[in-house]
Design brief:
Helix content: 25-40%
Oligomer: single chain
Distance between the termini: 26 Å
Number of domains: 1
Shape: globular
Number of strands: 5
Structural class: alpha+beta
Largest sheet: 5 strands, mixed
């Protein structure tokens, strides 16, 4: 029971961090379609900074409806590294990020950060920013 209360507190912290980080990217949010190698429709949702769990990390969240069936993980993984290098890395200097970890997440539908949505298909990858490339960092 105690763990549940602590988790709820962490979720609130994460949401607060998401709100703060989201302000920096507010002009980029919305129905911004981002091109990816697979050609699937991918829309930027938000960036979440410093949510509990990974230390300094920037989580770039995208909606990609086709991962629910038409796009397999291998194809989505290629899209995620592309999103890290062509979308996330160029935006990090604007928010003062230095040597951060970058998490790219794809979800088949919009979800609130930190909420459990059992029916949603979601893929996540974590990368280290090394210059102009993203290096897979594993969880």
């Amino acid at each position: 029971m105690e763990e549940t209360r602590q988790y709820s507190a962490l979720r609130r912290e994460g949401r607060a961090a998401a709100l703060i980080a989201g302000l920096a990217f507010a002009s980029e949010a919305g129905a911004e379609t981002v091109p990816v190698p697979s050609g699937q429709a991918v829309e930027f949702v938000e960036v979440v900074r410093d949510a509990p769990g990974l230390g300094l990390a920037y989580r770039f969240r995208f909606v990609a409806p086709e991962i629910a069936g038409a796009i397999d993980y291998k194809t989505a993984a290629t899209d995620m590294i592309h999103l890290c290098q062509s979308y996330a890395l160029p935006r990090l200097p604007r928010i003062g990020a230095t040597l951060p970890r970058v998490v790219i997440s794809l979800s088949d539908r919009p979800t609130e950060f930190g909420d459990l949505v059992p029916d949603a298909t979601q893929f996540f990858e974590i990368y280290r920013a090394e210059g102009e490339i993203c290096v897979w960092d594993g969880f």
